[in-house]
Protein 1
Amino acid sequence: SFLDRVRLTEPVLRSFLHVAESHVLEEARLLDRRIENGESLGPLAGVFVGVKDNICTADMPSTGGSRILEGYRVAYDATAVRKIRELGGIVVGKTNLDEFGMGSTTEGSGYQVTANPWDVSRVPGGSSGGSAAAVSARQCVVALGSDTGGSVRQPASFCGVVGLKPTYGRVSRYGLMAYASSLDVIGCFGSSVLDTAILLGAISGFDRLDATSSKRGVPDFTSELNPVSILGAKPLEGLRVGIIRETLDGGVDPAVVGVIKSAASHLEDLGCIVNEVSLPSFALGLPAYYILASSESSSNLSRYDGVRYGSQAIADDLNALYGDSRAKGLGSEVKMRILMGTYALSAGYYDAYYKRAQQVRTIIQKSFKAALDENDILISPATPSAAYKIGEKKNDPLAMYAGDVTTVNVNLAGLPALVVPSGFVDGGSSGLPVGLQMIGAAFDEEKILKVGHIFE
Ligand code: GLN
């Protein structure tokens, strides 16, 4: 029935770059046989999982949304994918994204543009727009994305689903195509907080194949997600919630602020103590992020030289081969980031840009730490606006980058953050969803999941 739904909706949504029909049917038959034999099944048995196409899968193409990897096959599964499969999950296919994760709309995919299921003339967000649209349209139950600067949370908000960016190090990055390695994390999409928590539990944990993965134990992320049954009780009594002042004005749509303020008063009704908290360095996050992410990407993407991976241009000498392969295979946004990053890292500019951005990063980390010493969680809008029209910001990269203002700080600080649908603003035929972002202390995903679960 999921495959039928994919067939029906995919011509309009274009969430997937690859749907593994025969693999899915084979897995389903295998599952049937195991049920008949009375075998015990894993907790994800039969669950349809979408996987962002910058996450490697051994039996399907992995393009990262880039033409330079057209037809490229990897010999192994990413650790997160391997774990999902070991628990019985079925990978339905590879979802669309902005090339190598660089973008906020999926318009930057080298292959196709995904539509937002709430209004198909709008973007689903990005870069994990395919995963968000797929979960939103129930083409799959849950999906993996990656979040370097908001690429799980922003599309979750635009598509009205739950999105979780785990703490840096919680989930192995082995098999995730590197964009900006100090910021990249694999994240989860679900149509409920419970589904999202189950997926997080499945993929978390130390992995010797990723030197930055954490040795911390993995709790049962679902253990605190109990249904609230006592009417009139205040299930979040005394929980200190800081609403980030800097996200309530400036470029944020007043209608979005309205939704977030009513979410805050709903949290108060549930027993929370909500106060405004100021993070004075907040506005520095965006420029620091774009310098650091571009710098790291300029180094990471040097591996796509037409020799080691993917498609190769025909050329007379080696330099021309590198140059032509990259000129043909990489899209314009990716080239712009490589140029920006190379510039920021070059002698004479390094101190003025890269080093300063690293210093800003430290200041941001400290200010989050202070705010989270005073508060149990922080909240903000997930995005400054609801989903906008396809094409609206395509030729205005700075306007697109500005939309990341609410998300990038969390990556710079390495913290976990959950986005849950919290209301609607005008737009489309049925209104457009807006997500509430809940930020927790490092490795305290349990708390934001608990609050998110009661809130939803
Ligand atoms: N939109 C941001 C960027 O283009 C975030 C991307 C991401 O998280 N992968 O860098």
Protein 2
Amino acid sequence: TDITAFAFGLPKAELHLHLEGTLEPELKFELAARNGIELAEKTVDEVKATYDFTDLTSFLAVYYPAMRVLQTAEDFHDLAWAYLQKAKEQGVVHVEMFFDPQAHTSRGVPFENVITGYRRAALRAQHELGVSAELILCFLRDFSAEYAMATLMEALPYKAWILGVGLDSDERDNPPTKFADVFARAKAEGFLLTMHCDIDQVGSIDNIRAVIEEIGVDRIDHGTNIVEDPALVALAKERGLGFTTCPVSNSFVTSQMKADEIVSLLREGVRVMVNSDDPAYFGAYVAENYVALANHAGLGPADLARLAINSFEASWLTPARREAYV
Ligand code: ADE
Ligand code: ZN
């Protein structure tokens, strides 16, 4: 079999995708022109030349400043709509998309612009593409817990449009417990919970233990350092916890894809699946991540099919809707 054709054709859910990480240089230029913003880089190649990441911090230093071209609800719609069309081509039938409202409210863009633009694209995807699309609100962990709580309060009027909450940005000195109260309140409001446990961070395994045992998350983003603690792996397996891994992203923010860890969890029967994280920056959408992992780790069609099944089983689709896919 041609593994690329197989990977693209495989119906899959994408569960770890930052909408702000789908901003391609071409759309960045279009939005900058629309909003009268002058950009330092004048060509796509010049923009791509700045994608010289060695770790999470150096990635985030390029990622956040790029967002200033996003201002109106239409801009947010156009960003998400471009991604959703691309996702359809990659075999995605369901997606749970992260968005970072504080990356916008912190520079004066109203929360309403962000959520209404993204929501409109999600509805349009259902109607025009047959792709089911949901939103997960992420708090930026390098801001305060108070700002996260205020953001949660701002989101409550839009609760019906938001499936769950997550935690992203720089993990160093910002452990999960910093947000224990915010996540307890989010859970009480009916949101599902996930948190990033980025690869090879200081105290990674302790943070993974805390998100499972203290926060009580419904899923973990990245989190493959869990292989360091077999007892914790056993617990994650017993609970059916999903791990949203991102092989190509891993190769940018660390020096490796972390294929051994991903495959080890897959073989143990843990619910791992493959996602793209920030595809515009890492140069690979979700099917391309399946192909990269398959080529690197020698996986065949049966393994890729298992990853795709895991993507539905770890999704936050209701059981009735999940049945349509697995
Ligand atoms: N924001 C966007 N991508 C991220 C990642 N991989 N880790 C943490 N924060 C992020
Ligand atoms: Zn991420």
